[in-house]
């Protein structure tokens, strides 16, 4: 039974969305809509600060209590931001079902 005093469970990947918004220059209000936890926002800012100082993502993630697989993805997002590429929260995966349906209809590679 959920009581009003218990905090809402957040998906662990929420920090990735929060970091993406931070890197894209979103306002504080927009970031707070996605990340209601102030600690996650602080973690994103600290992670970014440490990455700007050329520290390793693994050690920074451990010190901020961010799981390794999430800190690695955050590092990839940081590298994309630093290189001026598009920052993606999730990979750009093609919709396999739509592609298969188009092939069945006779579509070619173009």
Tell me the layout of helices and strands.
Elements: H1 14-23, H2 28-34, H3 38-52, H4 57-63, H5 68-83, H6 96-104
Helix pairs in contact: 1-2, 1-3, 1-5, 4-5
Rg computed from alpha carbons, rounded to a whole number of angstroms: 18 Å
Number of strands: 0
Share of β-strand residues = under 5%
Secondary structure: helix percent: 55-70%
**Number of helices in the DSSP assignment:** 6
Give descriptors for this structure.
disordered N terminus; 6 helices; mainly alpha; 110 residues; elongated
Briefly, what is this?
With 110 residues, the protein is mainly alpha-helical. The chain has helices at residues 14-23, 28-34, 38-52, 57-63, 68-83, 96-104.
Please describe what this structure looks like.
With 110 residues, the chain is mainly α. The protein has a domain at 14-83. Helix content is 58%, strand content 0%. It has six helices and no strands. Helix 1 crosses helix 3 (38-52). The longest helix has 16 residues, at 68-83. The chain is elongated and about 55 Å long. The N and C termini lie far apart (54 Å). The model is unreliable at 3-9 (pLDDT under 50).
């Amino acid at each position: 039974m959920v009581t009003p005093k218990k905090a809402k469970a957040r998906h662990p990947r929420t920090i990735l969305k929060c970091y993406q918004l931070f890197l894209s220059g979103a306002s504080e209000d927009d970031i707070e809509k996605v990340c209601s936890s102030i600690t996650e926002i602080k973690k994103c800012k600290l992670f970014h600060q440490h990455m700007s100082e050329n520290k390793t993502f693994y050690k920074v993630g451990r010190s901020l209590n961010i799981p390794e697989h999430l800190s690695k993805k955050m590092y990839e997002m940081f590298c994309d931001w630093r290189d001026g590429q598009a920052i993606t929260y999730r990979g750009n995966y093609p919709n396999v079902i739509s592609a298969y349906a188009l092939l069945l209809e006779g579509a070619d590679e173009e």
